[in-house]
Amino acid sequence: MAGKTRVAKYQADRTNQKLYFCRLACQAAGNTDDKQLYQAHCETAIFHLYGTFLAFIQELGHFYGLTMTAPTLQDIKEALSARTQVSPEVQRLQQLQQQGFLVDIERAYQRCLYAELPNNVLPDKVLDEKAASGIREAPDLIVNVVTLSNQWLPDEATIREWCQQFAELVEQLRAGMVEY
User: Fold this and answer.
1) How far, in Å, CA of 162 to CA of 155, rounded?
2) pLDDT tens track for 42-65
């Protein structure tokens, strides 16, 4: 990253910072015996890990001289294609999104954002039509957080492994990046 512009260096710093925050959240999770606090720390780690992914995408956009505020891999790919350029970093990340640890990170992130509804809970339209049939409404989410199992949540050791894999990937991709 030597010789990078101040903006590009900021983007690299932001990616590194998100990885650091993920490691801190994993450490906090490992140091607690409280189930809800453990879950909170694991979810925080997942949010930071996914944030690392987003920060690195933004870092790539700046590296390639693209002025996108919130780029996606597809946005970068299309912008570079218009300039007849190809990004091996984007190709590698897209590959890992389809089959690799990025799939697991994105799935965990989505599960942190959206609680899964039990099979007996149907969409509102169906609920309106079936209200007389005795179908229950969605359960109280606060009760779920406190009482239900967090089996869907990866443990802190898994999140640490993802964090390490992502840190290594970022370093490998940065090592291959050259100024245009």
Assistant:
1) 11
2) 999 999 999 999 999 999 998 888
